[in-house]
Protein 1
Amino acid sequence: MDSFEFNKIAGAVLGTLLFVMGLGIFSDALFHHAPPKVAGYNLPAAEAESAAAATPAAAVPLPQLLAKADPKKGETLVKPCSACHTFDKGGANKVGPHLYGVVERAKASVEGFAYSDSLKSKGGKWDYEDINAFITNPKGYASGTKMAYGGEKDPARRADIISYLRTLSDTPAPLPTPAKAP
Ligand code: HEC
């Protein structure tokens, strides 16, 4: 092999190497992968799980909770309420007003019961959302309320309570329609 031929072969090899390297750089530029923020692989299943775990139960909308709620459970959960409230039709007022028909009842409207100004100033009817807000944290809902009750912090238990309150009526109000799951 003379040196001319050797140069041709070496040139071809070098050319090929350069071309392959160039291709690598070029395709890197085309398909740029950002380095992961956290080292490791993104496993889709694990991601879905952690997303579910990160969603607090409170984020479930009330209509959805009410659709699953159990009025029978609610009936036992209102034991602490019954220290101050009656639930039967024509029931007396105790420390608090009677709660028969409270869903869709005008707020602070039971005859002969001396409501706080705070609750009287609310106006409107007791819909599901408002009852939910009130029994979550009475003072948070109406700062000057006379209802000396700490609140039920568990959304599912509140939904059970509310679904029981709903049954205390000659014509129970319809349940809210849960929004379609996304
Ligand atoms: C320590 C007594 C006490 C307990 C326990 C209590 N309440 Fe009350 N509740 C009251 C009083 C007093 C009022 C009137 C509040 C005001 O005027 O500010 C009231 C008002 C209400 C109202 C508004 C009624 C209306 O006519 O506007 C609802 C609804 C209600 N309570 C539900 C409940 C539920 C449900 C529970 C149990 C989870 C409960 N309460 C526990 C004393 C109590």
Protein 2
Amino acid sequence: MKALITGASSGIGRDIAHVLGSMGCELILVARREERMEELKSKLPVQTQIICADLSSERECFSLYEQVRDEQIDILVNNAGFGVFGAFDKTDLTEELKLIDTNIRAVHILTKLFLKDFCARDSGYILNVSSASAFAPGPLMAAYYASKAYVLHLTLAIWKELQHQHSRVSISVLCPGPVDTEFNRKADVTFAPPSKPSYQIANYAVRQMLAHKMLIVPGVSMKLAKFSARLLPERAILAVSYHLQHRRQPKQTAFKEGPIRTS
Ligand SMILES: NC(=O)c1ccc[n+]([C@@H]2O[C@H](COP(=O)([O-])OP(=O)(O)OC[C@H]3O[C@@H](n4cnc5c(N)ncnc54)[C@H](OP(=O)(O)O)[C@@H]3O)[C@@H](O)[C@H]2O)c1
């Protein structure tokens, strides 16, 4: 088996590489920080290739696919992503457009290109990394939450199409709650709820993906969060969501709250 993992230089992606590597799977690691991937490669017990790519660039997404299309890849893990914290009228537009390019467009492009190949040979696994953020809107992290909802719904819709085609191609979406990675530092936030170790999430995700699980939600509390998001009225969900986000204050830049609109 051979797997391509995006966002493999740290966090969940790096640990998915460890898990798949320990199963004897050959790896292609993709991210921007080459030295991090070289360090990871030196610890992996399997044949590993490194490709440096900025997936916020559409051109680099297509170029990545061209570089590996003849490699007979069995597993695609679309994991690269990041968050931007702050009120929507204050956050940086350029950063958010980059977020949309990385979290949505790259996932969309790579899923489509690899899925076509996987369908043609009627085999392969795709694991798209969304988030528990996908279950509800996220005031103060609006673009990030919306981007993860896109990944969740895109993946579930494709899963249904594949089922109707009696395809043996497997597609799964991972929706974890807070995980201990570099994510918080990059988004400049501090999560209020305790974070799970990323190896634990990666290990669970890989095993569930190989078991053809459609929706992977690690932990009882996140399963409950998903269930609650379906039951509660939107205003209640938004109130809870705002409260949780507000506790994730940026570490240095104080977040200035505007007047709260009640209608
Ligand atoms: N941590 C959490 O609490 C949490 C919870 C739910 C879901 N998630 C999701 O899990 C995924 C992995 O995040 P993480 O928590 O492991 O965070 P992380 O440690 O910051 O890892 C993010 C990875 O994405 C890569 N990446 C970011 N922008 C990229 C770009 N433009 N091109 C190529 N690679 C890029 C980074 O590599 P380079 O910087 O080297 O390019 C890095 O390897 C993300 O999709 C995130 O939304 C995280």
